[in-house]
Predict the structure.
Amino acid sequence: MMRLAVIGPGAIGGTVAAWLSRSPRVAEVTLCARTPLDRLVVETPDGSVIEARPRVVTDPVQITAPVDWVLIATKAYDVVGTGAWLAPLVGPETRVAVLQNGVEHVERFNPYLPADRILPVVIDVPAERSAPGRIRHRRDGTIVVPVGAAGEAFVALFADSVIVASTTEDFTTVAWTKLALNCAGAVNALTGRPGGVVRAAGIGALMRGMVRECVLVGRAVGADLGDHLPDWVVERAETSPPDSVNSLLADRLAGRPMEWDARNGVIARLGKAHGIATPLNGMAALILSAAD
Ligand SMILES: NC(=O)c1ccc[n+]([C@@H]2O[C@H](COP(=O)([O-])OP(=O)(O)OC[C@H]3O[C@@H](n4cnc5c(N)ncnc54)[C@H](OP(=O)(O)O)[C@@H]3O)[C@@H](O)[C@H]2O)c1
């Protein structure tokens, strides 16, 4: 029986914590929160509701013993506040799973932990939070982690949930494929317009160009990315509901910080390191950073 802690019980952390709190393999879930919450109420994709009352702590001094698993589900830019929880939660056997967007899951937390203790997670579980602890989990979704002992153990945690968890031999390609999708989403935050903006003159070509840069940089770091990705990303955008709002746009509209560095800045930074020009992602990151 596992003892887990979830740092950042927002849309993703709250959804995952609610499902795992029902797992027969999990003895205890602790929520490490910035904003206090009384309980989790998660509306699931089939309309049923999971109500859970995990232990909630709001200060690292309230942690008295390490846990078996730490799940990090804060936004990618909340590294310092997240890192403050790790010292009391992590013991010699603890594994730390990072459920965040981007391709730098390990690099982000390497200042706090050895890389071999960190399990990067690509999560595609659409969820929204309406208030602290009140979450709508919209579609079952998937979790992908690297193959290996830690990956297999993490996948086993989700055996009793609707979230489909699996391992991959090529995590780099999975993470960069998601980044290809996410980097083009900056167009929505930049224009302030939802998914339908893809049909405006020149926007599809702009998105293709952003994805092309991502593909070149991803290949330079070892991802196996096909030439079809720019068209695939634009086709997905064209067939999505015109009023769909991605998280970058939602954050911009709400005046919250945005994950522009994890989604676009990283392409420009790694592009520069590998001598690959990334003017479109560089400009997107710059404008969104100035708007942040
Ligand atoms: N939502 C989705 O559908 C979705 C899908 C795929 C991937 N993702 C990725 O998953 C990650 C999490 O996203 P999200 O949508 O779940 O974000 P979110 O709803 O904003 O949740 C983030 C949570 O982290 C908390 N937090 C921030 N700093 C903290 C600290 N120092 N200590 C403890 N908690 C702290 C926030 O607290 P407050 O309550 O004070 O805000 C909030 O509860 C992101 O990288 C996102 O890109 C999200």
